[in-house]
């Protein structure tokens, strides 16, 4: 079975850091660590079967969006042997507008 490398963009890394701080401030560091680790593990799971989620070529070529725990939308693309995580958007964020306006 083909394995894809999974890479987090600087934006995705920053979003994960901000989400960690938000959860840690309200629910403790242990809870924040578990939640963020779960998101990262979920993203790493795209290495074996990346053609998941909803295609969003209307926003960017090759873009896909998949949900995590009904609270987070993960925007990523699959090219060649790699999966690029472009963003980790918390519930309620208008990721359509953000991804249309910014270069990925």
Overview of this protein structure:
With 104 residues, the protein is α+β, with helices and mostly antiparallel strands. It has a single domain, classed as YaeB-like fold. It contains three helices and five strands; from the N terminus they run E-H-H-E-E-E-E-H. Strands 1-5-4-3-2 form a five-stranded mixed beta sheet. Helix 1 packs antiparallel against helix 2. The termini are far apart.
Describe how the helices and strands are arranged.
Elements: E1 5-8, H1 10-27, H2 29-44, E2 54-55, E3 63-68, E4 72-79, E5 82-90, H3 95-101
Parallel strand pairs: 1-5
Antiparallel strand pairs: 2-3, 3-4, 4-5
Keywords:
104 residues, alpha+beta, YaeB-like fold, 5-stranded mixed sheet, 3 helices, 5 strands
Give a brief outline of the structure:
This protein is of the alpha+beta class and 104 residues long. Helix content is 39%, strand content 28%.
Instruction: Enumerate the strands of the largest sheet in spatial order, edge to edge or round the barrel.
Output: 1-5-4-3-2
CATH class designation: Alpha Beta
Strand residues, percent: 25-35%
Low-confidence stretches: none
Provide the residue-averaged pLDDT. 93
Report the sheet with the most strands, covering strand number, pairing sense and barrel closure: 5 strands, mixed
CATH homolog superfamily:
RelE-like
Number of strands: 5
How do the helices and strands follow one another from N- to C-terminus?
Answer: EHHEEEEH
Helix content: 25-40%
């Amino acid at each position: 079975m083909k394995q894809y490398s999974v890479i987090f963009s600087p934006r995705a890394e920053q979003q994960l850091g901000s989400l960690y701080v938000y959860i840690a401030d309200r629910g403790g560091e242990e809870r924040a660590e578990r939640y963020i680790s779960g998101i990262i593990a979920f993203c790493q799971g795209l290495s074996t079967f990346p053609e998941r989620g909803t295609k969003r070529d209307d926003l960017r070529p090759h873009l896909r969006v998949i949900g995590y725990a009904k609270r987070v939308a993960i925007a990523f693309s699959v090219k060649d042997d790699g999966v690029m995580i472009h963003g980790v958007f918390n519930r309620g964020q208008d990721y359509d507008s953000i991804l249309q306006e910014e270069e990925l």
